[in-house]
Amino acid sequence: MNYRDALSKELSYALRHAPWEYELEMDAEGRVPIDQLLNALHREEHWKDVQEADIQEVIAKSEKKRFELKDGMIRAFYGHSIPMKIVKEEKIPPKVLYHGTARRFLDSIKAKGLLPQSRQYVHLSQDMETAKSVGRRHDGTPCILVIDAKRAWDEGVKFYLGNEKVWLADWVDAKYIVDYYISKTS
């Protein structure tokens, strides 16, 4: 694994899963002072030379846009598993969203809907390709669910923008899953 990928994983762990291990003081939106994060990283031999410019490079070159660095504060956009609920701003979603998952979960999803499981929010994709990519992490031929996000929004489901490809919801009732596809291997 190259240095940038390793740093991205370290940032994800610190900002999404274990800020207390780094003694980070997170605000309600999941932001921490970049200086505080750098100080925490510098306590580890492997990260003693990391600079803000290295973090900026990780952010700039990431395809998934996981982090935001603004006004001396850094945060992860989504994927949090920490007990503190990260406050998100409600946004009107696109008409349709997608969710990639393993085929073995399909019966449970049809019965219970989409639940956040160990995360704070259900993760939805703005396009089918992203959903397929996410689903492949759990199944070589994943199931791609089609969500009627407009109807869900109209009926009171809250959606939040994670980044330009990821949308979040507290929960999605099964009635809003209007179709699904089993992805072909490729």
- Order of helix and strand elements from N to C terminus: HEHHEEEHEHEHEEE
Separation, N- and C-terminal Cα atoms: 24 Å
Taken from the alpha-carbon principal axes, the silhouette is: elongated
Helicity level, as a percent range? 25-40%
Keywords:
186 residues, 21% strand, single chain, 9 strands, alpha+beta, 3-stranded antiparallel beta sheet
How would you describe this structure to a colleague?
The chain has 186 residues and is an alpha+beta fold. The protein has helices at 3-17, 34-42, 52-61, 106-112, 128-135, 149-154; strands at residues 32-33, 67-70, 73-76, 96-101, 122-125, 143-148, 159-161, 166-169, 177-182. The relative contact order is 0.15. The mean pLDDT is 90.
Short structural summary:
The chain is α+β, with helices and mostly antiparallel strands.
List the helices and strands and how they pair.
Blueprint: H1 3-17, E1 32-33, H2 34-42, H3 52-61, E2 67-70, E3 73-76, E4 96-101, H4 106-112, E5 122-125, H5 128-135, E6 143-148, H6 149-154, E7 159-161, E8 166-169, E9 177-182
Antiparallel strand pairs: 1-3, 2-3, 4-6, 5-8, 6-9, 7-8
